[in-house]
Amino acid sequence: MNMLNNNTDFLLSIENLTVSFDGFKAVDDLNLYVDENEIHVIIGPNGAGKTTVLDLICGRTRSTDGSIKFRNKELTDMREHEIVREGVGRKFQNPSIYEDLTVFENLELSFPRGRSVWGALTFQRDQDVKARVQEIADMVFLDDLLDKQAALLSHGQKQWLEIGMLLIQDPELLMLDEPVAGMSVSERKQTAKLLNEITKGRSVMVVEHDMKFVEDIAHRVTVLHQGRILSEGSMAKVQADPKVIDVYLGH
Amino acid sequence: MTSFKSFMSRQELIGILVIAAVLFVVMPLAMDIFRLNLFGKYLTYAFVAVGLVLCWGKCGILSLGQGVFFGLGGYCMAMYLKLEASTPEATAIQSTPGIPDFMDWNQITALPWFWEPFNSLTFTLLAIIIVPAVFAFIIGAAMFKRRVGGVYFAIITQAIAAILTILIIGQQGYTGGVNGITDLRTLKGWDIRTDEAKYILYYVNGALLIAVLLLSQIVLKSKLGRLLVAVRDQEDRVRFSGYDVSNIKIFVFCFAAVLSAIGGAMFTLQVGFMSPSFVGIVPSIEMVIFCAVGGRLSIFGAVYGTLLVNWAKTTFSETFPELWLFGLGALFIAVVLIFPNGLSGLYQSYLAPLVNRVASTGKRRGRQDTAPPPSSGFGADTSAKAAE
């Protein structure tokens, strides 16, 4: 194993990360760093390995080689729920919420308390929980819909609910996979506003195709291509890079 | 009072009171002791069905091997009763007096070590709970930690049911083989075969069922109950919210196993024997059908479903023995295709609105229930109507 023991000041440092599926290297010797309070956007053509990188960080996919350190803690051999408890939150591409439960219950289940079997059995819906659920619901524009069954929400509202479910856990690193996909124009604007709001005091990694949206939010952009980094830097720098224009942005 | 409301809605309270009334008043008045004992036997399956509501209906884990746990509970009870019936005096004609008769027939000359502790009633009662719980924990940990789920889990549980049946039949000298453990007589000197004892056992059984329903209600109304539904709907989201999903699944599987075992122990006490024909694949699948017919989301529905199917089984198999299995298959298909939420689903969509309109004079608009709300007491009417 290629275990580098040098500690860094980065919140997240990915070094020499490789994952291969039957010989196909979806992510190939990747090095990527995320600063505190940074909004880091990953873009790239389909199949570039963007979602795989997020999957590797949150433990959904196991790496073949390399290291992922979060606050200098190695994540590659931790299980998913342990990584979450370290402070890494992950939003999926399709809204994954509990459709049979109400908005309130969706948020309540995400509240970071009573996560063991016994803890869940003895969990009390006290003022702390209610206040926090209300606070998050206000943030994600769902405060009027707390009693509504989640299945009845619109697509955009479901996306917001899932973001809310992550926010209530107050993660230090928030990973969002195409947060505005399938949203209407007005919902996109609201989401950009929401993201600017929630990124205060935490780092965010976003995978996104919508270049306008990326331009609005990104501090730093990484362009992936065939599992490798094609270009990295500010949005302006990346957009001017001829390699990026070639394979992704187009002329 | 507020804490009670969050534990049980008025509809659910009515539901449990109606079940209690049916069990403790209506049935004992309406039936002679032979029929009542039969009804008590059906009720023991209701324990399994209630467990399946939590495990399968709520959490989405389909177990086709609940007969295993029913059998473990039943066999634990039977072993105790058999030892009590096998005093040296009662078995004086055997070549080795003092051991169960089937052991003697199989040329076994000393009581096997694992039978020894079953001389103690305390041990037996603990074993009825602990043995299935530990067994379910081992299966659950082996499967769920490796993320085996869905149809694969169902097939494996079915295989375990088959294996246990074969094991019991094969180890005739230790288990009584295909005949099971029969000729059970007394419990601490109290003859369980008299009419009076049957009445008492019937009431004990009923009280235990009510207790199990209340216990399940506690689980379902806690955050854990909502987590079960969440695991069923979006397992990954639960995992990525910081929960160890496998532990939740192991818990609910063990819980269902313990309920089944209690049912099995009560079965042995009321029916007077235990055999591998209540352990294997067919009874395990029947138990799933009981649950499905009653409504796999409702613990009350599951009780009525069990009673209805068993009543139908007894009635039809008396008249058309060869047609019963086809009837059962047709019933299952009908449930899956036409009323997927079973009797309680039918009640919820057709009867509940009527009942509510009649009953609600005041304005009582609580928080929307998490899952489709369970059937209330009028499920009894539904099952009675469906039975006609």
What is this structure's SSE topology?
The complex is a heterodimer of chains A (251) and B (388).
Chain A lengths: L11 E10 L2 E11 L4 E5 L6 H9 L6 E6 L2 E2 L5 H7 L1 E4 L11 H8 L6 H5 L5 H13 L15 H13 L5 E5 L7 H14 L4 E5 L3 H7 L2 E6 L2 E6 L1 H6 L1 H8 L2
Parallel strand pairs in A: 3-8, 3-9, 6-7, 7-8
Antiparallel strand pairs in A: 1-2, 1-4, 4-5, 9-10
Helix pairs in contact in A: 3-6
Chain B lengths: L1 H6 L2 H21 L2 H26 L7 H20 L15 H5 L15 H24 L5 H21 L1 H4 L10 E2 L2 E2 L3 H27 L1 H11 L1 H5 L5 H27 L9 H14 L4 H21 L4 H14 L4 H18 L19 H9 L1
Antiparallel strand pairs in B: 1-2
Helix pairs in contact in B: 2-9, 3-9, 3-12, 3-13, 3-14, 4-6, 4-12, 6-12, 9-10, 9-12, 10-12, 13-14, 13-15, 13-16, 14-17
Written account of the structure:
The complex is a heterodimer of chains A (251) and B (388). With 251 residues, chain A is an alpha/beta fold. Chain A has helices at residues 50-58, 80-86, 103-110, 117-121, 127-139, 155-167, 185-198, 211-217, 235-240, 242-249; strands spanning 12-21, 24-34, 39-43, 65-70, 73-74, 88-91, 173-177, 203-207, 220-225, 228-233. A six-stranded mixed beta sheet of chain A has the order 6-7-8-3-9-10, with helices on both faces. Chain A has a four-stranded antiparallel beta sheet with strand order 2-1-4-5, covered by helices on one side. In chain A, strand 9 (220-225) and strand 10 (228-233) form a beta hairpin. In chain A, helix 3 (103-110) runs parallel beside helix 6 (155-167). The longest helix of chain A has 14 residues, at 185-198. Chain A is globular. Chain B is built from 17 helices and two strands. Mean pLDDT of chain B is 89; it is low at 362-388. In chain B, strands 1-2 form a two-stranded antiparallel ribbon. Chain B has helices at residues 2-7, 10-30, 33-58, 66-85, 101-105, 121-144, 150-170, 172-175, 195-221, 223-233, 235-239, 245-271, 281-294, 299-319, 324-337, 342-359, 379-387; strands at 186-187, 190-191. By secondary structure, chain B is mainly alpha-helical. Chain B is globular, with a radius of gyration of 21 Å. In chain B, helix 6 runs antiparallel to helix 12 and helix 13 (281-294) packs across helix 14 (299-319). The longest helix of chain B has 27 residues, at 195-221. The A-B interface holds A 58, 60, 79-81, 84-85, 89-90, 92, 96-102, 105, 108-110, 112, 114-117, 120-123, 125, 147-149, 162, 165, 169 and B 6, 219, 222-224, 226-227, 229-230, 232-234, 236-245, 247-248, 251, 367-368, 370-371.
